[in-house]
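USER:
Try writing one entry.

ASSISTANT:
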Amino acid sequence: MAWQGKILRVNLTKGTCTPEPLNMAWARQYLGQRGLATKYLVSEIDPKVDPLSPDNKLIFATGPLTGTMASTGGRYSVITKGALTGAIACSNSGGFFGAELKMAGWDMVIIEGRSSTPVYLYIENDQAQLLPADFLWGKSVWDTEPAIQARHQDPLIRVACIGRAGENQVLYAAIVNDLHRAAGRSGVGAVMGSKNLKAVAVRGTQGVGKIRDPKAFMEAVRTAKEILKNHPVTGQGLPKFGTQVLMNVINEVGALPTRNHRDVQFEGAHKISGEAMHQPRPTDGKPNLVTNQACFGCTIACGRISKIDETHWTVKNKPEYWGASGGLEYEAAWALGAANGVDDLEALTYANFICNEDGMDPISFGATVGAAMELYEMGVLTEAEIGMPAPFGSAQALCRFAEWTARGEGFGKVLGLGSKRLCEKYGHPELSMSVKGQEFPAYDGRALQGMGLGYATANRGACHLRGYMVATEVLGNPVKTDPKATEGKPEMLKAFQDATAVVDSTGLCVFTTFAWTLADIQPQIQAACEGDWSLEALNLLGERIWNLEREFNLKAGFTAKDDTLPPRLLQEPCKTGPQKGEVCHLDVMLPRYYEVRGWTPDGVPTPETRRRLGLQ
């Protein structure tokens, strides 16, 4: 039946690890991973709980296709109430940790309470125990993972852990697995740190052997893999350039937020693009990119492995950064680069290494730096207060800020609060480019109207992965729509949001949807899982998950007033590019979106919608 049928409940306060059966009725309603774990979370915590209190819970969740032969079937998610936002948080990661957890026999791990001293959770198949982590506290991700493997004398142990950012309660701290894959957004690492939990280490050898119809499943998987192989994005673009294939494309269409969204095009974009990562450096004749890399079971291999020029000023006297490690993806390259006006590819790679090494979301970090740089240029922040000059374009400030924030030093403590709290602290809340406290990703909502609406309505705060309207507005997938148009965008965004909720609940990677539709995923789920998984059932499931998340946020205190964008996107037009003169017409789209969703004009699901979705 694809599910292992078992969850592990870990009470850090009591020091206990207790297995319990998976609620199969809920599994048939919510499938797995994002959907199923959200159902558990909202059933077990008070939505108004302080995210950093022991009463918040942290759930590591796999999907029914995690650990199977399905392409990209290595995903897992971390679900909690977000430290950065106070909203529902679900942060997705790849690598090999998720498959290892599933092959150890567990669908989910629910972590509750708080340990009085640092601990890590060690799982070896059916056995789980909490072990002292004093020897790990204060260590980076890069030091923690090998230390645990050495302690247990097993290099095949998979580790998901926090670095110093999570320990220091950086509000956008990440949980990093396999050294440079991350459950990156919304501050899930800060929640983990608040519980004195340093790591979850897993060794699983049981496999995933409960597929409902193995023959039909393998046939569906084979067919789906061919589609990925033959599609220009998943078969060519992503393997060669990774998500960085987008840098020059988005810049050309005038949707690349630059210098804290002051501009929509970056003159240095070509210097930090996927193409630039392939170019030999004049210094040593070697490119920034060493190779691509795949997560468990992935046939796309979009991951980047990079090596910094050893003579570059960032690492000249730091040989610990001379090795090859996780390189820039598009969102990180944008946030560390264009958002701050920095076009030094090696400096961006170094800052990205720091984010991986100590577990920080590079999107929120980079966007927060952008806000700080604008405040500096306005004279609100001074050199004395910051500790160094910090104008837009300063690679030195960017890299120093990364070090300070990871370590919790000096001005880094303020940067660790995120842009919303930073800008409020210095009297300019309008300069935080965020929704619900979470910073924007790498697309401008004025140039792409559907993305603007998507940011405003995303349940976890500004997010591109909750309804990737770039697909239709830029890439023409499944159909090309006019980026300036508002008509039809609410309907299409709802479809994207619901479909993504399904994909995030399967154990598969959302990048497959560059090539796949739900019609390609449905046969894989149907063959793997017991029950009715028709397209109609899946569409309803995605809508159910979205509304469940919405209801949690409403109970947490969010209202329709939070479904908005910063004044800059609503009032200051794009200065250049094809969408010059445009602002985001949220006022036109949002009422229609509520209507399409079956919500009241105040953004609340109606009783009829709740009945239809089984949320009563």
